[in-house]
Amino acid sequence: MSDANSHVKDTTAWTLSRIFEILHSPATGFSVISNSNLTRIMSVLLESIKDAPNVAAKVCGAIYYLAQGYEDAGSRSSVLSPYLPNTIAALLTTAERTDANDSRLVASAYETLNEVVRCANIAETSQIIAQLLPVIMNKLGLTVEMQIISSDDREKQGDLQALLCGVLQVIIQKLSAADDTKHIILQVADQMMVLFLRVFACRSSTVHEEAMLAIGALAYATGAEFGKYMQEFYKYLEMGLQNFEEYQVCSISVGVVGDICRALDDKILPYCDQIMTNLLNDLSSGILHRSVKPPIFSCFGDIALAIGEHFEKYLPYAMPMMQGASEVCAQIDSDDEEMLDYGNQLRRSIFEAYSGILQGFKNSKAELMLPHAGHLLQFIEVVFRDKQRDESVTKAAVAVMGDLADTLGPNMKIAFKDKSFYVDFLGECLQSDDDQLKETAAWTQGMIGRILVS
């Protein structure tokens, strides 16, 4: 890395990133990095990040994979903690370089910062990460004040806002995940929300994806307190749900509806008519990319769980959509790998929708689902007999079968006696190596067993 030739340094930094990506996994007990060589490695990387932009970008990649190796490494991630302040400082300095434009260096620096924060040992580094929060918030605030004269200026502003919102999302998730540090996010939530809304206001027609993701993280972190932001935020959420052209924005907005449902529970009710109208329009659209449709069905489940019996008014609209989608699944070409993957996503999301609705109605309106139970059980059987289903579909199918038995109780006795396929299905799942699947299958077996002896 101290060679006079820039190409040599560039290639060396790239090689280091590949070594760290492939041969550095402390969680499994194997790594080329040890306590004895880490100091030297970090010293070289933090010095080389000051090099020419192309070299610095590759060094960012090396730091990225070095940090990523400590994901899920538990206490082993402690070895990186002493280097965190200097690493964060170096990445922030790199992102501010005036010669950074040509080599994606700004993006590399912020993406690496995200990974360093995400994989840090929170117990040891919470103070450092908390100190980073106002720095990034200030940088985001400055982007709103940028003078915009040309379309290039607008693009530069948007790119920088996306990167900074991405960093804030990671910090929100990191600090709110631990009880000891959650209060840090709650204290600045109002200021952050103001910033995110100002970012939205910079964009006249499109909703900022990264700001939307950060708001989803903030909703999850603040819980019921998020309700006070809804009136101001809802117009931007609706813009996202109606954005057919930029389907990733639409998909992210659907995911944020789920986050808000989990945060607000039935306090989301005043917005549900508009949200459900938008979601149903999305499903009916012939121009919206198909990849958005599975998250919408999952979102039906989130809404039903949040508002419980109040979902009754949407049932006549949601059920035909769900049943129609389940029939589409049966027609998917099994030789087309991409369509097969889509089919699995769609089936899983339909099961998640049914689960949410069944659980939402369990205590007061369970009888509303009786007319739909036969179709659901038949759909589960079709999926069981399809050996190309993936594990996530299997888990969702077994879970919804348990929800069906749990919510409808003795009303399902005859149906389960007639449809004995579930015995083989649960038997298969109980033999699985996946503990979570076995646990769900055992619970479902108990639910069905309970109604058969009733």
Automatic annotation (TrEMBL):
Entry-linked InterPro entries: ARM-like, ARM-type_fold, IMB1_TNPO1-like_TPR, Importin_beta
Main location as per UniProt: cytoplasm
GO BP field: protein import into nucleus
Keywords: Cytoplasm, Protein transport, Repeat, Transport
Keyword Cytoplasm: yes
Domain Importin subunit beta-1/Transportin-1-like TPR repeats: 41-411
Protein name: Importin subunit beta-1/Transportin-1-like TPR repeats domain-containing protein
Taxonomic lineage of the native organism: Eukaryota, Viridiplantae, Streptophyta, Embryophyta, Tracheophyta
